[in-house]
Specification:
heterodimer; A: five-stranded antiparallel β-sheet; 12 strands; about 35% helix; B: about 150 residues; DNA polymerase, domain 1; about 15% strand; binds flavin-adenine dinucleotide; binds FE2/S2 (inorganic) cluster
């Protein structure tokens, strides 16, 4: 990747105006993934120094600036405690500390990588994306529609919820992409997201509805929820794992994850 | 473009291209302890410290670290000498290609987690690949060094 011009705007308004003005402009997160791409970047707009690198909370929400790094997610006490620290654990499982000090949550969300360890966790939380121009967009809407026009992700907002959460990342080595990600939360309702299928995160909506409607959560309820998830979640093969192996992983890890948070 | 930063405790003004990565800037200025391995964010041998945080210099744009403090092993000489003693004693030193990055990452670890366990060390150093030692001896040497020098 070659970068021909680097622009450091002094406000988000200015950054957005530049993005509108120049079709060939791109927003920089940590540029880790962008750098691996083949395309040259004519104009790179960096958002450093614009206050997008903090994590704050109110009584109701946690707000994560788009430039917050994975390492900040891993070590921040607010993220470490919300829903059993599942977002902190997911971030901490990605590559080495040198990558996590650079890769941003903004780049991770906008990139929407099918191997993402972050998206399945955000998908089982009550997550809203805050864009400069489009304003608030629920994460599930963003995942299903993608961005219709260039915009700047300013923050990721998570509504605080009482309850429990867990994430299972299954990979061959600690530095490798996940063979499967299983993220589950149990708050006033159940949410289950399966990532690295190897396609991107999908919600197990029938399994979630079954758990929501159950009078009690026992072994049978969980077994049925796992069966429903196995029917509705499409898994396939790639160089890392076969479909059959992913099915075995899903069955075992979803059962364990549900038992952890029931 | 002109950028100013502190490299190994010395203020430097450098002329860099907009898309230039810190690894190239440092090596172009004869700081050759910073190695190029994969050049694709995976091996960790290009690690330097930016404001005491380990980052991959192959992936950081130099213009984005203007005003910051960059450390390579030349800037932490005393610590490197001490660590090298422990590494030698444990037989953790082989071709040495990964050593500068490892020493810098351990230096950052020491500041972030003053009394790390072996598990803390393993987790913190996951991104520092070594093709020779098999890691075990390195991690024991680092544990001893950090315990005895704390
Ligand atoms: C070697 C390697 C291994 C990895 N392994 C994993 C892994 O196992 N699991 C995992 O989950 N992730 C993994 N990642 C991905 C990593 O966690 C980040 O998600 C990725 O690097 C993107 O983040 P970034 O900050 O580098 O974004 P960039 O590369 O800077 O940007 C990515 C995209 O997002 C856009 N963008 C960035 N910020 C904004 C914003 N605020 N507003 C609008 N658009 C924006 C950019 O224009 C670009 O299109 C890996 C990355 C690398 C390099
Ligand atoms: S050279 Fe391998 S990570 Fe930078
Ligand atoms: S000692 Fe040879 S790469 Fe580590």
């Amino acid at each position: 990747m070659r970068i021909n011009e680097l622009i450091q705007p002094t406000s988000i308004e200015e950054a957005y105006a530049l993005l509108q003005e120049h079709e060939d402009a791109k927003i920089a997160g940590g540029t880790l993934w962008m750098r691996l791409g083949q395309h040259d970047v004519e104009r790179l707009i960096v958002l450093d120094g614009l206050g997008l690198d903090t994590i704050t909370e109110t009584n109701d929400d946690i707000s994560i600036g788009a430039m917050v790094t994975l390492r900040q997610l891993e070590t921040n006490p607010i993220i470490q405690t919300h829903l059993n620290g599942m977002l902190s654990r997911a971030a901490g499982s990605i590559m080495g500390v040198q990558v996590r000090n650079l890769a941003t949550i903004g780049g991770s969300v906008i990139g929407n990588y099918s191997f993402s360890d972050i998206i399945p966790v955000l998908a089982v939380m009550d997550t809203t994306l805050v864009f400069h121009h489009q304003g608030e967009v629920p994460l599930d809407l963003f995942l299903s529609k993608r961005l219709s026009e260039p915009d700047i992700l300013v923050a990721i907002r998570i509504r605080k919820q009482e309850g429990r959460g867990t994430v299972h990342k299954i990979s061959r080595t600690e530095l490798d992409f996940a063979l499967l990600n299983v993220a589950v939360t149990h708050t006033d309702r159940w949410r289950i997201a399966i990532g690295s299928r190897p396609a991107g995160a999908a919600m197990a909506t029938n399994a979630m509805a079954h758990l929501d409607q159950a009078d009690r959560i026992d072994d049978q309820t969980i077994a049925t929820a796992v069966e429903l998830a196995m029917e509705e979640i499409k898994l396939s093969s790639n160089a890392k794992a076969s479909q059959a192996y992913r099915r075995d992983l899903l069955s075992a890890h979803l059962r364990r994850a549900l038992n952890e948070v029931k | 473009m002109k950028v100013t930063m502190t490299i190994n405790h010395r203020q430097r003004e450098l002329d860099v291209a907009p898309g230039e990565h810190l690894l190239d800037t440092l090596r172009n200025h004869h700081i050759l302890s910073v190695k190029r391995g994969c050049d694709s964010s995976s091996c960790g041998v290009c690690t330097v410290l930016v404001d005491m945080k380990p980052v991959l210099s192959c992936s950081v744009l130099t213009a984005r670290v203007a005003g910051k403090e960059i450390l390579t092993v030349e800037g932490i000489h005393d610590f490197v000498e001490t660590l090298a003693g422990y590494m030698g004693h444990e037989g953790a030193d082989q071709c040495g290609f990964c050593n500068p990055a490892l020493a810098l990452t351990v230096y950052a670890l020491k500041h972030e987690i003053p009394h790390p366990t072996l598990d803390d060390i393993r987790h913190y150093l996951l991104g520092n690949l070594c093709r020779c030692t098999g890691y075990q001896a390195q991690h024991i040497a680092i544990l001893k060094c950090l315990e005895e020098c704390a």
